Amino acid sequence: MTRQGWQTGLVLVAATALAAALPLALGTYSLGVALDLMMWIALAESWAMFSGLSGYVSLGHAVFYGVGAYVTVLLWQVLPLWFSVPLGGLTAAALALLLGWPCLRVRGPYFVILTLGISEFIKYAVISTEAALGRNGRLLIGTPSLTVLFEAMLALAVLSMAVLQIVRSARLGAGLLAIREDEVAAEAVGINATAVKLSAFAMSAFIPGMVGGLMILRSTYFEPMQAFSPTTSFTIVTVAILGGSDTVAGPLLGSLFLVLLSELLWTRAPEVYMIILGVLLVAFVLFVPEGLVGRAGRFLRAPKPGPSSRDHRAVVIEP
Questions:
Q1: d(CA 279, CA 90)
Q2: Which has the closest alpha carbon to 157: 28, 264, 42?
Q3: Among 21, 66, 20, CA closest to 43
Q4: How crowded is residue 223: how many other Cβ atoms within 10 Å of its Cβ?
Q5: What is the mean pLDDT of each run of 10 residues along the chain (319 residues)?
Q6: Alpha helix locations (H) across the chain?
Q7: I need a surface site. Which of 46, 166, 187, 197 has the fewest CB within 10 A?
Q8: What pTM value is reported for the model?
């Protein structure tokens, strides 16, 4: 590992240790906001693992979130929590493999619409199942404390960042980037596009499944319309657009920006919160398409002003 890599690793370890100590310094409300921040980081980093690198924009990650939540609810007080939450992630990954086989055969806007449609189909399938069982909702009693949930969500956020960085530097990431540039050319040089996309799609679903399991424990009540809400998918894409979707720093900065802005808008302008957020998203798409990370990189790489050629010609050196 290079010296810069070691320095980056040490910074991440220090930042993680500092974040883990937040429950000692924050109140209940602030810790809840920090939990939401960790949630969006984990979701956006895992989304970037597939969509950011491959260019296949998925609006179906809400279904992985909801499936993880549903599995955790069904297994609540039946299996240990440390087993049921990862099992929800594995179920979401298995569902991604099942759905990805037909869905990843289409591209562009067709893939976007298809993932959204399948997400809604599964949501109403769960609603029908719950209605057939005579359930209008499921209440969870005796859930873990906010501190425990925050520490677990922090671990998922760090895990998602680490996995994204590993994927980017591995052959899988190179294959995804090649597919994003030109899928036909990538297949022509020997890349198995179907296997690469399917593997990344399943990996990107695993963490959202666990995030859904933890967040349903936070709300203590399962309701399918909320657990499978498409707003989750749209917010993930918003975070990616704000921060930049194909680097570890992009979803991190995008999540931080969105959470802080949301808290500000909820307190200052709750009536027009979604309108302001939508206008901001359109502005970023039009004027900052590279996201916060890309714009910061352009600013840092900009040449510093110096003396012009005229100034050089005007300099006279006396003997």
A1: 37
A2: 42
A3: 66
A4: 17
A5: 55 72 80 91 93 90 94 91 92 94 88 92 92 85 90 92 89 91 88 92 95 93 91 89 81 88 75 76 77 66 51 42
A6: 3-20, 28-47, 53-54, 61-74, 81-103, 108-132, 146-169, 171-181, 183-188, 193-219, 224-227, 230-243, 249-268, 273-287, 291-301, 309-314
A7: 166
A8: 0.86
